[in-house]
Amino acid sequence: MGDVTMVCMTQPEVLIVQHVPWEKPGRILDSLEDLQIPTQTVCIVKEKKPDLPDFKELAGVVIMGGPMGAQDYDKYPGLKAEEKLARAAVSVGKPVLGICLGHQIIAGALGAKLSHGKEPEIGFAPIKRVDKHDYFSMWSKELNVLHWHNDVVGLPEGAQLLARSANTKNQAFRAGSALGLQFHLEVTATLLDEWLAEPTMTEGMKKSQIAKIRDDFAEYDPQLQPLADQVFSGFAARCNTYMQTLQAR
């Protein structure tokens, strides 16, 4: 019998890019795990030449939020690698999801302009749906969601604007296989507790402001959870379909 060459096949997975320990994927991870989709979480924001998984084996990419600016390249050189990753994923149709900073990174990677907002948006405030998409088929016209950002980003050329708020034109967009959300549907009650216990998240906030965020979460989350489940399960389903195409090669 001749020599037999064993080929080790890499299991496709979804890559989750975090920037700080407390900005976790929350409900996004729940939806991926519901479909038994393998994930790997990395933090590469301070690395000039990050060691990333094999791009060809990625079934999807999630880019989370963080306190840094999307173009703070000098202090956080890994942001350039994240932009490159997002752009490459969209170019081949891999599902991509960006939350807050991740939303800005993806939009910037696709050519949109980043700028400082008129004022910070922190806490619950309404956004308006401006276009329909199957990700948001159950979304009412106006919805109170959790915001936590200073910067804003424009709409990439050719992208579909899905939602806006009084101070932020681009609250949600779709561009090819990418979905960007400036707001935070991923946050669970447990995750919110972590945020509010993190000094950098609540710096400069009064106790009354923190208490209002807790109260508003209790009021609005029952309405947000079904939407979050729809959005993130839809993303997970797209990742699952892409994973099956990789496995069928």
Automatic annotation (TrEMBL):
Signal peptide: none
InterPro entries: ChyE-like, Class_I_gatase-like, GATASE
Residues annotated as transmembrane: none
Residue ranges annotated for the Glutamine amidotransferase domain, each copy included: 54-193
Pfam families, per the entry: GATase
GO CC list: cytosol
Record PANTHER family: GLUTAMINE AMIDOTRANSFERASE YLR126C-RELATED
Descriptive protein name: GMP synthase
Organism taxonomic ancestry: Bacteria, Bacillati, Actinomycetota, Actinomycetes, Bifidobacteriales
